[in-house]
Amino acid sequence: GISWNTVCYMIGEVQYGGRVTDDYDKRLLNCFARVWFNENMFDSAFCFYTGYKIPVCKTLEQYFDYIQLLPAMDSPEVFGLHPNADITYQRNTSADVLDTITNIQPKESGGGSGETRESVVYRSAEDMLEKLPPDYVKAHLVKMGALNSMNIFLRQEIDRMQKVITVVRTSLNDLKLAIDGAIVMSEASKNLRDVLDNMYDARIPQVWRRVSWDSSTLGFWFTELLDRNAQLSTWIFQGRPKVFWMTGFFNPQGFLTAMKQEATEAHKDWALDKVAIHNDVLKLTREEITSSPSEGVYIYGLYLEGAGWDKRRSILVESTPKILFVQLPVLHMFAVDSS
User: What's the CA gap between 144 and 297, in Å, rounded?
Assistant: First the structure.
């Protein structure tokens, strides 16, 4: 007979598995090997997937002919994936191609009559500087109470946002001076050269990315900077928000920790190391929230990838075709004593 364990090992660990570097990919490969490679694969009704069966041929040429009839591109369903997986693959492939094309474009100014790249970037820099928020004033934070756990978290967020604003303002001002010729933008000025090249390509300069967050384009990144700043400014000047934009924080985990500390302070008999975080997915949107919860916080801005959400039954469902991301309704995050 056939030693199926040996066959599975040769395929899942050696011939194909030896080329797989991701642990989860290897786990999936071994799972397929265990399910497929056994005595049942010689049954006449067996198929790997609809249209993918073991051919019964007598000559090598017949096997070649059968292989030629197989699709050149396999659908995601063949591998047990949702059809949306193909959209993600095609999008990533297209992005890689476009990035490669952008990277090999000449960086120097052309001699044509059109607008030069320096003038394009200069105008963009002026527009960003005009919209860039002002620096934070520490005096406003002192009035809010320095020892409150949520205010401590707010100070940390503001410190990081202030660093981003400072780096962006300094880079843009230096870039304008360099384009005007007031300072020399030599090859040694790698940061300025990087800012110039990336702004022209609508990408995020590395010096900005290092102190901030990632985004698909420079426009989305700058819009998010303004939105993040708006949430922090509103918290300072208008009081604690009724619902928080969770993904607008540098340290979302720190926000949840501050919420746990706040709950521990409210319940004197709770120990912080025994407090656990729970959540309820509400049926409300951000606009429908009119007041803060009695305990915990309301958050929004979380998305599902690879699944859908049934608002009526509040359960996970299969993804809708051609919809890759689904925004969750408002979540109520709260702490409970698990001791």
Answer: 18
Distance CA 29, CA 307 (A): 22
Q: How many C-beta atoms lie closer than 10 Å to residue 296's C-beta?
A: 22
Residue 334 CA to residue 296 CA, distance in Å, equals 4
- State the burial class of residue 36 (Cβ atoms within 10 Å of its Cβ: 0-12, 13-18, 19+): middle
Concatenating the DSSP letter of every residue in 208-266 gives HHTTS---SSHHHHHHHHHHHHHHHHHHHHH-S-SEEEGGGSS-HHHHHHHHHHHHHHH
Residue 328 burial class via C-beta count within 10 angstroms: exposed 0-12, middle 13-18, buried 19 and up? middle
Q: Are residues 226 and 286 in the same domain?
A: no
* Structural domain containing residue 16: 4-89
* Size of the chain, expressed as the number of residues it contains: 339
Q: Is residue 279 part of a domain?
A: yes
320 plus 259 within the same structural domain: yes
In a domain, 309, yes or no: yes
What's the gap between Cα 142 and its chain centre?
34
Q: Model confidence over 36-89: pLDDT tens digits?
A: 899 998 888 888 888 888 888 999 999 999 999 998 888 888 888 889 999 988
Return the exposure string of 187-223: e unless at least 16 CB atoms fall within 10 Å of the residue's CB, then b. eebebbbbbbbbbbbebbbebbeeebeebeebeebbe
> pTM of the full predicted structure?
0.78
Q: Please state whether beta strands 243-245 and 297-300 pair in parallel, antiparallel, or not at all (unpaired).
A: parallel
Domain-located, residue 94: no
CA gap 143, 180 in Å, rounded: 43
CB 231 within 8 A of CB 245: yes
Quick check: is 97 in a domain? no
Indicate whether 218 and 156 sit together in one domain: yes
For the segment 129-165, what is each residue's pLDDT rounded down to a tens digit? Answer: 999 999 987 666 666 666 788 989 999 999 999 999 9
Specify whether 221 is located in the same domain as 137: yes
- What's the one-letter identity of residue 46? F
